[in-house]
Amino acid sequence: MPLSRASTRGRYSRIVGVTHVELSNEPDKLLWSWTANGVYTAQSCYRATFQGVTGCHSWKLIWRSWAPPRVKFFHWLACQDRCWTAERLARRGLQHHPRCLLCDQEPETIKHLMLVCPFARHTWHEILAWLRLPAPTPEHDDSIMDW
Ligand SMILES: [Zn+2]
């Protein structure tokens, strides 16, 4: 089914961000809406690509740490809630355990496994004591990035 010219123009306008059109007899020209002078630059295109994206403020902590790459990657996955926990398996309709396999007290989420589970809290306490860091163990309402 062919699209009407007005329908095509409307779809194109939404894609390229046309907001105001004045008709004249002058030849058409394209203006890049992401720069003040209307000229395309790779820099403005790069910035436009990430317009409206929410950033992860802990990226420096993750990627610039001395930790091995596999630990950095796991930390990044945990911050994004992309680890294959029972909760994530359930969201995908996959077979999962109803509760945390370590403590059998709460559903297995990444927050529970990393911060709330008594085994995780004990592990963090031991690590912090071994490193002689005066940091407190995570609280129940902390997120991974907050702690
Ligand atoms: Zn647990």
From TrEMBL:
Q: Which domain of life is it from?
A: Eukaryota
Domain called Reverse transcriptase zinc-binding: residue spans? 40-124
| Record protein name field | Reverse transcriptase zinc-binding domain-containing protein
* Pfam families assigned: zf-RVT (PF13966)
Q: Which organism is it from?
A: Aegilops tauschii subsp. strangulata
Q: What is the lineage of its organism?
A: Eukaryota, Viridiplantae, Streptophyta, Embryophyta, Tracheophyta
Matching InterPro entries: RVT-Znf (IPR026960)
